[in-house]
Amino acid sequence: MWDMDVNRFTPGKDYAIELQGKADAVLQGDSVVQDSAARHLFHYVNEERLKNIKTFATFISLLDNYETSTGVEEIVTPEEIAENNCFLDAILMTGVMKLAHEYLLKKKLAKPNLADFKYQLYDIWFQLYPRKEGDRPDSCGFEHVFVGETRRGKQILGLHNWVQFYLQEKHKQIDYKGYIARKNKTRPDRDDQVLSIQFSWKGSVKPIGSTFIGVSPEFEFALYTIIFLLSEERVTRKTVKIEEYELQIVVCRHGRHIGTAYPVLLNTSNED
Question: CB within 8 A of 136, min separation 6: which ones?
Answer without folding.
Answer: 71, 72, 73, 130
